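Fold this sequence, please.
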Amino acid sequence: MQHQLPTLTKCMIKNLDTGDEISAYFNPKDITINKNVPWNKHKDSKADKPILEFTDADPAELTLELLFDTFENRLSVYQEFIEKLEKLVKVDEAKKRPPMVLFLWGTHFPKFMGVVSGLKVSYTMFLPDGTPVRATANVTIKEGRDIKTKDKKGKGAQQKDPDRPDRVDPEDHRSAMADEDELE
């Protein structure tokens, strides 16, 4: 009986505003999803074992470290990968906000939609001319289903973005990822 090796599926971060996709060069070794549920001490509590009051839920946060390496090709890791990640934390002047994103990896890991709330990049290898060829990027995505921005009066206004689909079907993206793997 011949065993078939599983196909490598690369994780991906998709910019839901532009449709741009950033596939990992190497898949992350671990992913952390953190969900805090804040409970406050009720105002009538007076003992060591207080009455707790639920007020509101915080969004979950997904954190991962991605490694990018372009040493063999002698290309700038910044231009090939990091510049695309930076677009996920920059404010689009027309929309007055950074984009919504979707994190996907295979068919068994849950989709994670939200906004990139943190990006930290470390460059760890350079060519003699100073071109960065290896970098690690720590990415944090704060979960959310939609975006509100402040209007000129400082009040929240929900954006109905015609360029961004209201409902994301992760199966469409996962099948596209499978097609890419077959081409490699």
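The chain has two helices and eleven strands. Confidence is low (pLDDT under 50) at residues 159-168, 173-184.
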